[in-house]
């Protein structure tokens, strides 16, 4: 699974059609986020309708979901070092995309077979392996480890070049009120 590059502050992206077909976002491969319902497309990290968001795009690459993040010079903790909150946001949004796709597949569906139900983080353990450099491209790689109904466990890592800078294990759940998550509201 993989994520492609995104542009901050780019043009507003078109809304997804109800058919579950992705809008044209200029990527060579569709991203999981292209199949999220429109009401969920406002997420700061991955929402295609959020004009100031990060626009993370998670696309399949072999067995992994991959996202490539262009350099961002604004999210710094101190000169040369990325703000940890920015790194955690990237890990989070990418991991829940991996969870959403894994649950979609566990239901016998493929990307493009209707909308993908969005997930949210229930818990997240992050290991900052080393200070993450600011102003360089990042690559995120995620893989689902466990899928059971509306719960998915995902491992995700962020690299700057060849260096692993952060890792996380994310326990994700389908968002209550979504088509598959409505039963959990009681």
Topology diagram in text:
Elements: E1 59-61, E2 64-69, E3 76-78, E4 81-82, H1 84-106, E5 119-128, E6 138-148, E7 151-160, E8 163-174
Antiparallel strand pairs: 1-2, 2-6, 3-4, 5-8, 6-7, 7-8
Largest sheet data = 6 strands, antiparallel
Order of helices and strands: EEEEHEEEE
CATH class: Alpha Beta
The number of distinct structural domains comes to: 1
Low-confidence stretches: 1-26, 180-186
Could you tell me the radius of gyration in angstroms? 15 Å
Strand order of the largest sheet: 1-2-6-7-8-5
Shape: globular
Number of separate strands: 8
CATH architecture annotation name: Roll
Alpha plus pi helix count: 1
State the separation between the terminal residues, measured CA to CA.
34 Å
**CATH-derived topology:** Thiol Ester Dehydrase, Chain A
Instruction: Classify the helix fraction into a percent range.
Output: 10-25%
Tell me, rounded to a whole number, the average pLDDT.
82
* Fraction of residues in β-strands: 25-35%
Task: Determine the CATH superfamily.
Answer: Hotdog Thioesterase
Helical/strand content category? alpha+beta
Would you kindly provide a written description of the structure presented here, covering whatever features stand out?
The protein is globular, with a radius of gyration of 15 Å. By secondary structure, it is of the alpha+beta class. It has a 6-stranded antiparallel β-sheet with strand order 1-2-6-7-8-5, with helices on one face. Strands 3-4 form a two-stranded antiparallel sheet. The longest helix is centred in the middle third of the chain and has 23 residues, at 84-106. Helix content is 12%, strand content 31%.
């Amino acid at each position: 699974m993989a994520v492609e590059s995104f542009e901050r502050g780019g043009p507003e992206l078109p809304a997804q059609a109800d058919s579950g077909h992705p809008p044209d976002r200029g990527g060579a491969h569709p991203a999981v986020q292209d199949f999220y319902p429109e009401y969920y497309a406002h997420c700061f990290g991955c929402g295609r309708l959020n004009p100031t968001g990060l626009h993370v795009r998670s696309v399949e690459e072999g067995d992994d979901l991959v996202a490539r993040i262009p350099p961002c010079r604004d999210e710094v903790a101190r000169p040369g070092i990325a703000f940890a909150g920015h790194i955690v946001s990237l890990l989070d949004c990418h991991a829940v995309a991996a969870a959403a796709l894994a649950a979609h597949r566990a239901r016998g569906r493929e990307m493009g077979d209707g909308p993908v139900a969005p997930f949210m983080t229930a818990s997240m353990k992050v290991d900052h392996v080393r200070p993450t450099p600011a102003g360089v491209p990042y690559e995120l790689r995620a893989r689902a480890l466990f899928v059971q109904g509306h719960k998915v466990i995902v491992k995700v890592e962020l690299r700057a070049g060849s260096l692993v800078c952060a890792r996380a294990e994310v326990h994700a759940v389908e968002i209550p009120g979504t088509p598959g998550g409505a039963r959990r509201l009681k």
